[in-house]
Recover the amino acids of this structure.
């Protein structure tokens, strides 16, 4: 396991404290697969939860490749045991929709929010989501919604919401939800051969209306990583 404690502490300090009356949404995304976005998001979520006054949520937005809950479950020494699942929406909204719509055996529509649950750990300070991809039928897929109802609801419910997004080379899912985050952090592997991909993604995100806070260089060894060239206001 890569120890990112110091890096995440630096990221926490750079982003600054959240407002006491309103939670914030921080999205992590990379230009290409294999940059370590899920690791960085999970480690930041753990640090945020330890320091938080209210619950912190880790939203696994890579709906086709759910890994966060299972990985957290393997590290009981660091996260504690997972608690019982609950619906992951405070008001029945969702950040995705199923196309074509999912229906039950009785033919009635199944609400999108019912497919997303969350389980607590760290003494209920951290909640980690899980999407029920197993109930989808052939031809159905989850599509990102270009609206902020879910994220607004979560800001009222949690101190910090960390969003682990799929890489931009696989899907535009993360680009669609990025404008509704308070800050977007780009993750680049320390040994990446083409750093321009991160810059291109930054430009694409900003053109879409996202607030890019800066870069995290993952797995850096030779020198301390450079965090957040532009700090969120």
């Amino acid at each position: 396991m890569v120890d990112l404690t110091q890096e995440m502490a630096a990221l926490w300090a750079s982003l600054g404290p959240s407002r006491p009356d309103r939670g914030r949404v921080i999205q992590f995304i990379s230009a290409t697969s294999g940059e370590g976005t899920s690791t960085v998001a999970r480690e930041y979520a753990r640090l945020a939860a330890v320091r938080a006054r209210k619950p912190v949520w880790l939203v696994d937005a890579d709906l086709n490749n759910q890994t966060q809950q299972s990985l957290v479950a393997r590290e009981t020494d660091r996260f504690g045991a997972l608690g019982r699942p609950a619906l992951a929406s405070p008001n029945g909204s969702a950040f995705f929709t199923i196309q074509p719509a999912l229906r039950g055996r009785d033919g009635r529509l199944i609400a999108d929010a019912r497919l997303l649950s969350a389980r607590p750990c760290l003494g209920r300070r951290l909640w980690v989501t899980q999407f029920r991809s197993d109930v989808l039928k052939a031809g159905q897929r989850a599509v990102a919604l270009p609206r902020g109802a879910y994220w607004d609801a979560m800001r009222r419910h949690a101190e910090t919401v960390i969003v682990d997004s799929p890489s931009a080379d696989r899907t535009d899912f993360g680009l669609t939800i990025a404008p509704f985050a308070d800050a977007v952090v780009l993750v680049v592997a320390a040994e990446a051969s083409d750093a321009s991909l991160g810059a291109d993604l930054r430009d694409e995100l900003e053109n879409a209306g996202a607030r890019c806070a800066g870069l995290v260089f993952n797995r850096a060894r030779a020198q301390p990583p450079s965090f957040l060239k532009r700090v969120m206001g």
